[in-house]
Amino acid sequence: MTQFVSNQNDHDLISAIKDGDHDSFRILVEKYQERVIRICRGYLGSYEDAEDLAQEVFIEVYKSSVKFREQSEVSTWLYRIAVNRSLNYIRDNRKKFILSKRSDSYEMSAIENKASGSSADNEITAGEHRHVLHLALNSLSDNQKTAFILNKYEDLPYIEISSIMGVSISSVESLLFRAKRNLQKRLLDYYNKNML
Questions:
Q1: Do the domain assignments include residue 1?
Q2: Residues 20 and 60 in one domain
Q3: 98 with 131, same domain?
Q4: pLDDT tens per residue, range 64-102
Q5: How many CA atoms lie within 13 A of 163 on its CB side?
Q6: Closest to 50 in 3D by CA, of 20, 103, 98, 90
Q7: What is the Cα–Cα distance from 41 to 50, expressed in whole angstroms?
Q8: Sign of torsion, CA 157 161 166 172?
Q9: Rounded Cα gap, residues 172 and 135, in angstroms
Q10: 190-195 own/partner pairs: CB under 8 Å, 24+ apart
Q11: Could you give the dihedral angle defined by the CA atoms of residues 12, 15, 20 and 25, in that order, rounded to the nearest 10 degrees?
Q12: Could you list the residue range(s) of the whole structural domain that residue 129 is in?
């Protein structure tokens, strides 16, 4: 078993994982778990679903570590797996996903607002806003949604997003521009219909 050194880089961790070092795998999970959950939650909306999906992401990372090519960054590879797993989850559970998101939004809002002492009206409003934003995000194309989540939820630079998505930097810029424009339009349409 490989001895872990605190300054071990990601490629060293993957090499150790390939050799069956479970401690290195645990360290990799601890390092990236919250980031992977944030990416998954950007697609799924629910923190609980995102946690479950993140576990699947790391299982895939463990199983496919032998296929990892050293040419790319480990984080890029991990994020790509998280994106693909999230998109597949949405496709495989489309009907359940759409129906359950409204109640997830309200439950999360209620928990967050109780902690902050907000009123019941604020809980409902915040839950509805979160739900509307999530629906608007899910109405984007997969590429627009992916670029937006990686940029806004993970604050990744365009060059890393282009690597994860396998597109040019100018394509990332274009996807983000279109995603923002489409989100603004959908949100404005919703608020014009429901708030006026």
A1: no
A2: yes
A3: yes
A4: 999 998 788 999 999 999 999 999 998 888 766 555 544
A5: 14
A6: 90
A7: 5
A8: negative
A9: 22
A10: 190/132, 190/136
A11: 50
A12: 94-136
Please name which of 155, 160, 159, 151 lies closest in space to residue 183, comparing C-alpha atoms.
151
Q: Is 166 helix (H, G, I), strand (E, B) or coil?
A: coil
Predicted TM-score (pTM) of the model is 0.77
Q: Are residues 80 and 34 in the same domain?
A: yes
Tokens 């923190």: give the residue: 47
pLDDT in tens, 4-62: 444 579 999 999 999 999 999 999 999 999 999 999 999 988 899 999 999 999 999 99
Boundary residue ending a domain (92, 125, 160)? 92
DSSP sequence for 111-152: HHHHHHT--HHHHHHHHHHHHHHHHHHHTS-HHHHHHHHHHH
